[in-house]
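Quick illustration, no need to memorize.
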Amino acid sequence: MTEATYFILAALLQAPLHGYGIIKRAGEQSGGRVRLAVGTLYGALDRLVEAGLVVLDGEEVVDGRPRRYYRITDDGVTAARQEAVRLQQAARVVTSQIVVMGA
């Protein structure tokens, strides 16, 4: 799972969001490392919807433009949790070696 995909899923854990909300929250949660371009976001959302990890949760028109809201599914929560565990395990390998080296 890419870092961008991980943070898109993480952004949706609290509540459904529209595209700009996802971009903003992913940036905040990643400490500014993830800067999603609109095209990147919607390509990733299309793939996540196709994989059943995210669903379209509603749409409204704001200033004449449609605003789509996305919601994470139970499978999406499971995928985010599994990726978080994988990242923790990978980090533990490195941090334990650094401690042994005394660095």
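Residues 70 and 99 are 42 Å apart (CA to CA).
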